[in-house]
Amino acid sequence: MTCAAIAASLAIFWLISTVTGDGRLASAGVLVVLCLGTLVATQGGVRAFLGTAPTYSFFPFLRRYQPALPFPLFFVFCTLVWRALNSPARRAACGWATAAGGLFAIMVFSYFYLWTAALGWTAGCALVWLISQRCDRGRTLAVFGIILALAALALVPYFILITHRDPNMDRVQLLTLTHAPDLLRVPEILGLAALAALFYGARRGLIKHSRAALFVASLALMPLIVFNQQILTGRSMQPLHYELFIANYVALLALVMTLAVLFPPQDGTSRTIPGRAIAFAALIAFGWGVIEATGATKRDVRLAQVREDAMPVSKKLAELARTDGSLSPVPNARDPRPVVFSSTLPVADFLPTGSPQASLWALHMDAFPGASAAERKERFYQYMYYSGISDKELERAILEGRFAILVALFGVERVIPGLAPGEKPLTLEEMRTAWLGYAQYIAFFSRERAAHPTLSYVVVPTQTPPDLTNVDKWYERAAGLPAGLFTIYPVKLRP
């Protein structure tokens, strides 16, 4: 992640300094863009300050290896396009365009929300350039034609691949058919503010580098394009990811570069931004970044510790896999892999990372298309039942709004606002129906239900084990195997 952060910083610095020629502002701009991205996405520290739980309490672009690794490529791509549009020699312009098209082809197979954002920005940039640079349309068409041709070479096999996707994939990924506009997200508002400032500067004659201003305007348009492309395509898929992982950063980038265009670094002019102002802005952004980082660390340290404590469990299960058949599943078996029930939810979520056995249920099970919604709900009910959770306790957890419980029962799209367009808030009647469904499920729990799926291992904390009465009704437990702070019980279904 450190390398990804350094690469992103260098890519953003290169873009700002190349377009504006202002190295000082580019240095500060790196901090503004990367440290304030969580704030613009209305996550992290600002939510904690307002007393609401943040969905993402960290720097979003460093969330995981996706989008961290390909994230810098977006800004490098923008720089290459700028070089192609502004190279004096046609041969050099074609070279830069070829590099940009090749980089886009790589991005297609990296992270969906990055390459589609790059595609949306490219379309907006081409439109702005064709409308405003009429005397240079030949070069513009050549540049974007090369980029489009190379992009097509990657997009054709990409679309062939996704035509073979699992039938449940669209539902799991929350693909929504809609033409409704989406105009009130913070990155869009910031983009519009940048456009308004550029328009004002143009009217007042403050802009000396019109091509740089047009390029910045295309960046400011990008959030509007990606959040409203469904008006034409009729399809929207988790637009919150644009808000978290790219549109927020591009909107901040557009604001920083707008200042550089309106106040260029020229000696003797009153419009040059003072060095102290740039340093102060960088200091403020860095300070907020420290707040985000320390707040996220404090909020997530307990979860990280639980996952660290679960490492011995994962290693032990991997050792057991050599003898329990996990590594050589029978193709026609009903449950080809042994199933693990862990009473500690973060452990259940983590175990598949390092061990080949399957988890009975985990929070992120909804991210995989192999199981139907009905199967995932039944596995959740079974997980609650084995954990000794009564229907009254589940009702209380629902009314308290516990995230994991609500996601399991109603889907992540109903719990995280803005994840899927058109989703309505949960109602008390829906909550009551879910609670009654669980009460009925445990009232008629049977051996047939206990056998589908059949458990092979039970993992519990050694010092504070839960009540396993419901497990012992249907399974025989063998002697426990110590694994760090946990105990692993091999279990066998009772006859």
Produce a short descriptive summary.
By secondary structure, this protein is α/β, with parallel strands linked by helices. Helix content is about 65%, strand content about 5%.
What does this structure look like?
- This protein has 495 residues and is an alpha/beta fold.
- It folds into two domains: 2-302, no CATH class; 307-493, no CATH class.
- It contains 25 helices and eight strands.
- The protein has helices at residues 2-20, 23-35, 37-40, 45-50, 65-68, 71-86, 90-108, 112-132, 137-162, 169-172, 186-203, 210-228, 230-233, 240-245, 247-262, 275-309, 311-324, 345-350, 373-386, 391-399, 403-410, 412-415, 428-443, 447-450, 469-474; strands at residues 175-177, 235-237, 339-342, 358-359, 455-461, 475-477, 481-483, 486-493.
- Strands 3, 4, 5, 6, 7 and 8 form a six-stranded mixed β-sheet that branches. It has a two-stranded antiparallel sheet with strand order 1-2.
- The longest helix has 35 residues, at 275-309.
- It is elongated.
- The model has no long low-confidence stretch (mean pLDDT 87).
Draw up the topology in text.
Blueprint: H1 2-20, H2 23-35, H3 37-40, H4 45-50, H5 65-68, H6 71-86, H7 90-108, H8 112-132, H9 137-162, H10 169-172, E1 175-177, H11 186-203, H12 210-228, H13 230-233, E2 235-237, H14 240-245, H15 247-262, H16 275-309, H17 311-324, E3 339-342, H18 345-350, E4 358-359, H19 373-386, H20 391-399, H21 403-410, H22 412-415, H23 428-443, H24 447-450, E5 455-461, H25 469-474, E6 475-477, E7 481-483, E8 486-493
Parallel strand pairs: 3-4, 3-5
Antiparallel strand pairs: 1-2, 5-8, 6-8, 7-8
